[in-house]
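Allow me, if you will, to draw on your knowledge of protein folds for a short while. I have a record of one protein: its chain in single-letter code and its fold written as discrete structure tokens. Could you please explain, in whatever detail you think fit, how the structure tokens follow from the sequence? The record follows directly beneath this note:
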Amino acid sequence: MYAFYMRIILIYFLLIGTLFADSHILEQENFEAWQFTCVEEQQQKICDLRELVFDPNSEEVVSYLSITINPDNLTQMQIAFPHAVNLKSPVSLQIDEKDPLELNYAYCNQSACFVAEIIGENFVNFFKAGNQISIKILLLDNREATITYSLSGFTAGYNKLSSSIIN
């Protein structure tokens, strides 16, 4: 059953790819574990910084974390999870050995369930100073899953993302 949900996530990313197929990629650059991309969509430049986490056995995408800067110049974080998560249980996000934060799911669509948060400069600075993010989720069968994101390259990628809103 778990593998089924992981395949759904992979299909989601394939669908996202088809959405961007109609978009023109203006710029794309890798920053170690993170990828910066700007596309032109409906005559607007849209940029994000993201990292994908793959299952080491199946090579399928398990989760992704995306950082964007909205028109009000606020940093937004979105994390995607498979549908097999217990939506009543909060997501625990921990940067290195700092105290974990509890986040709630914001919404689900046909492809995944998401945490979506506006994050302040202090939170971005924790990302910049950190080495990794550990996220703990509770699955529907009450198993706990830990997803780890590397913060290697985050600072350079975020700086690129910040400068992209000026250009």
About this structure: Confidence is low (pLDDT under 50) at residues 1-22. Residues 2-21 form the longest helix (20 residues). The longest strand covers residues 44-54.
